[in-house]
């Protein structure tokens, strides 16, 4: 049974009390998080509130504003230009759906931002709060903090620590991906990354930490291929060139910085007569997690994406309730999705005993 989110809290408490057979005061104490209630009572109240569809609303409360502006790079508003940021914006929309909030947008460059445009939008009377998505300009962060209206950052950082932020834990995500490959027995690993933003540098730092945790040295000259974009076409060209020019053993695994990069990598391997994962394993770090590439289900470290908008809105709610609370950055964990593009290599065994077009060397 659903309950209108505008229903008064008193009516909600009364209905829960009637359904559970508990007193109104007991229900009120449970929902207020008081300790002087029994576990049985807490469980009954939570389950009833969940069934009524009001538990999340009671926990989050109403968003106490009606106008919100999202500042983001121009490409974020075009799905073909930056699907990651585009989907984050959609997740903000979804998180705001239960609330009576008008959402407006303003394109702002990541670094060479138009400060006058930012000030003009922020100082408009109808602008009650803002979300900055991927804006790296420290001057914009200073202005946002000085204006004093609630403001939350997504996937960027305020070096002066005056604004709250939410972002994927890029470094730990990179480290966890590398550690997984090592746990699967891989030692000959090549990493293919696009480093166009510092967040990708953090992922590389995490990958390097994963090597160090296994007492191995990550040598960029031997173990890293840098791409200018996340496109499948460029990745295919880079891996094809690597395979043609290599003078050492074939890697047992390739760790790539995106699902489209994984698609290009698999195409290059296939054209070289190599199979995934029998000859070379491929693992991706991405937010899209394509189900399969060339009929091979893709193992990936899933980067939080849709969760960013939801957490930013919740964080904004907290800023409205506690405007002077200490600011911090919420780093969201990645999720390992194990499919079939990475195979386990048993200790003491080579990656494969098959030679394809003279490209494979036994390890």
From TrEMBL:
Domain of life, per UniProt, equals Bacteria
UniProt GO MF annotations: DNA-binding transcription factor activity; transcription cis-regulatory region binding
Keywords, sorted A to Z = DNA-binding, Repressor, Transcription, Transcription regulation
**What is this protein's name?**
LacI family transcriptional repressor CytR
Q: One Pfam annotation, family name?
A: Peripla_BP_3
Which stretches make up the HTH lacI-type domain? Answer: 13-65
């Amino acid at each position: 049974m659903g309950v209108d989110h505008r229903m008064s809290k008193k009516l909600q408490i009364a209905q829960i009390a009637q359904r559970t057979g508990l007193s109104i005061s007991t229900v009120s104490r449970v929902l207020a998080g008081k300790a002087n209630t029994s576990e049985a009572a807490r469980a009954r109240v939570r389950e009833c509130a969940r069934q009524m569809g009001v538990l999340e609303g009671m926990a989050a409360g109403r968003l106490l504003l009606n106008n919100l502006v999202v500042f983001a790079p121009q490409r974020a508003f075009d799905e073909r230009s930056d699907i990651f940021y585009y989907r984050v914006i959609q997740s903000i929309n979804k998180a705001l759906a239960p609330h009576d909030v008008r959402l407006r947008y303003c394109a702002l460059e990541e670094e060479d931002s138009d400060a006058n445009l930012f000030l003009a939008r922020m100082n408009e009377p109808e602008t009650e709060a803002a979300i900055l998505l991927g804006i790296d300009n420290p001057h914009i962060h200073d202005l946002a903090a000085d204006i004093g209206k609630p403001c939350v950052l997504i996937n960027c950082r305020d070096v002066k620590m005056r604004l709250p932020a939410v972002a994927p834990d890029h470094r730990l995500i990179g480290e966890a991906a590398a550690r997984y490959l090592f746990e699967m027995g891989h030692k000959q690993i090549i990493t293919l990354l696009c480093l166009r933003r510092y967040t990708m540098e953090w992922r590389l730092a995490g990958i390097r930490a994963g090597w160090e945790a296994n007492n191995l040295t990550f040598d960029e000259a031997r173990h890293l291929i840098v791409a200018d974009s996340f496109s499948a076409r460029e990745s295919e060209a880079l891996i094809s060139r690597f395979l043609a020019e290599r003078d050492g053993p074939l890697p047992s695994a390739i760790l790539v910085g995106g699902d489209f990069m994984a698609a290009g990598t698999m195409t290059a391997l296939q054209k070289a007569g190599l199979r995934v994962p029998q000859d070379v394993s491929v693992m991706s770090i991405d937010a899209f997690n394509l189900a399969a590439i060339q009929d091979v289900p893709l193992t990936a470290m899933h980067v939080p994406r849709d969760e960013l908008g939801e957490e930013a809105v919740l964080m904004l709610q907290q800023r409205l309730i506690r405007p002077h609370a200490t600011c911090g950055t919420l780093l969201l964990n990645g999720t390992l999705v194990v499919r079939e593009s990475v195979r386990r290599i048993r200790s003491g065994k080579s990656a494969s005993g098959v030679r394809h077009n003279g490209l494979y060397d036994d390890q």
